[in-house]
Here is the input.
Amino acid sequence: MIEFKEINYEVVTVGEEFMSDDFLIKPEDVETFAFAVEDHDPWYFEGSDDAPASSPFGGKITHPVLMGNQALFMRHSKYIVPAGLHAKMQYEFVEPLRVGMRVRTRGKLIDKYEKRGRHYMVTEFATRDEETGTVLVRGQFTQMLFPKSGVHEHAKNR
Amino acid sequence: MPKTASQPQLLAVGTELPPLKKTISQRQIDCYSGVRPNSIHTDVEWAKKKGFPAPLVQALMSTAYVSQMMTSWLGEGFVRGGKVSASFIKPVIVGETLTARAVVTSHDDVGGRPRVTVECWCENQQGVKTLVGSASGFADHLRK
Here is the structure.
């Protein structure tokens, strides 16, 4: 049983670990993602009438960044996150993601810091094929924590 | 027919990749981020409460444009071994048009394979940069 707390700079601790739920990559996930980012590369759809086989991976793959949100939302499995801004993202694509894989992302908070009055947390992550343990994607990201006032300087700057 | 690293004009430092232009709709944000209340991406009132004029495009969407640009160019050498490092420096509002751009900045030999690095960025319709960073991958199986 998880007791969810509202996230803030004080409550998160360097070294704490996060884990996403596992996720089965389904054809409709790839279709939805392709629509969202307007990227219908035939490598992601081969085998359909519109996309003959073309990928060099022995079958269709998915967008390398498909599971980015699984990493980003790991903290939601421990905290209530009213809002936040994403400051930085680093990806390394190790092996292609494929439809039918069951994947899970694990991560660790490796740093938190204050800069110009704003609070940030840095998380490293690895997304793996749950069946084989193979690392598919790894990286790290930096998220800004919203202040309790609710209105952020970023908004005022526009 | 895949092109190879023997075509140096595609790899020369200073070479600009074909830009990608995206006008981002609320429906696309909804599909990317998932619709929920109290979200700056999909809840208009909540976005306003947080000080924004309208819902924000999730920053991570811009990395998908960089990934698309690199996958279209490097193919296998990006899908297996590619890297992206991005900083999101300006919020993007629904309905804005982003252009993703990249310029080759260096080549390196990594274990006998040519790794090419680009400086990449996204800019809005006013030419204001919203993402800045770099991306790289192996250039031994170019798609185009």
